[in-house]
Amino acid sequence: MSLFLAHKRARFLFHRVILCAFLSWNLTELAEAKDHSSHRIKSMAKRSSIQSGRIAPAKALSLRSNAALVTDVNTGAVLYEKNIDVVHPIASLTKLMTAMVILDSGLPLDATIRVESSDIDLERGSRSKMRIGEVLPRRDFIRLALMSSENRAAAALARTYPGGQARFVSMMNRRAAEIGMASTWFVDSSGLSHTNASTARDLAKMVAAAARYDLIRQYSTTPEVALTRFDSGQQIAYRNTNLLLRRNTGWEINLSKTGFLNVAGYCLLLQAKISDRLVNIVLLDSWGRYSRLGDAHRIKKWLQNRYPAAPGKM
């Protein structure tokens, strides 16, 4: 009798083990299937959200500049933003405002200006191809300030403004206020002072305003120019500081300005046509000489993928 009960108990335990194993296997399979299904549902929902625009496009683009803004010129829509209200020194981006104030003044562009010793950068000792005593038309001073970021050209433009440099800087700040640059201020015409500061939001407004001037668009995107010195007849070659304009890069750029100071990092302003879309691009405080250009290329590729050009267009 005891042998029978022992045998029966052994069979009971054996079947229980088999049942537990079977249930465990099914529960594992069920959990894995549930996890897979949940992951698939989440992935489909994420793709659907991205396609519908509910997920911010900024999540799909990573830039090295500490502040950036991309806007659609025609609609005003913000396509990408990063730290757009943080105030930064803006270095030679300042020269766009310098050009606007000069052009607004109505001063004769063919009138000649002479480079004076007071135009030399004593604060940072920046180099210049413009010699003391050199004489050029005012329009060439604007051209060199925009395309080659010549500090002496920008200083001379302010110095020869009616009322001098102090009056000129006052007009720069007034013009900034007129176009809604509420977090911007200027103390000089070249941007050599780190006190010249703004935000990406404000600078997008400056790009939009500057792009309305035919001469600014033309001069800021000139790849290179050779100017003849008035006194000696010698020709001096000047190149654009934006490498995107010096090479066959495939960019269609309407307006450009670069800037650099140690405290400002590398900065870049662009108005460009990408995938049938005219955009303003602001890049601030990028550390690394070529990182701002890399960011510009990343933005271009991102826009081309997100908004493909119509068939037959680039």
Question: Would you give an account of this structure?
Answer:
- The chain has 314 residues and is α+β, with helices and mostly antiparallel strands.
- Helices cover 42% and strands 19% of the residues.
- It has helices at residues 2-52, 94-105, 138-147, 151-159, 164-178, 200-210, 214-220, 291-306, and strands at 67-72, 78-82, 88-89, 112-114, 135-137, 197-198, 224-228, 235-239, 253-261, 265-274, 277-286.
- The protein has a five-stranded antiparallel sheet with strand order 2-1-11-10-9, sandwiched between helices. It has a two-stranded antiparallel ribbon with strand order 3-6.
- A hairpin with a 5-residue loop joins strand 1 and strand 2.
- Helix 3 packs across helix 4 (151-159).
- The longest helix is centred in the N-terminal third of the chain and has 51 residues, at 2-52.
- It is globular and about 55 Å long.
- The model is unreliable at 1-58 (pLDDT under 50).
Quick summary of this structure?
With 314 residues, this protein is an alpha+beta fold.
Let me know the number of strands: 11
Largest sheet: 5 strands, antiparallel
Gyration radius over CA:
31 Å
- Euclidean distance between termini CA atoms: 93 Å
Strand content: 15-25%
Globally, the shape reads globular
Low-confidence stretches at least 5 residues in length (pLDDT < 50)?
A: 1-58
Task: Enumerate how many helices there are, as a single number.
Answer: 8
Average pLDDT number: 84
Helix content: 40-55%
> How are the strands of the largest sheet arranged?
2-1-11-10-9
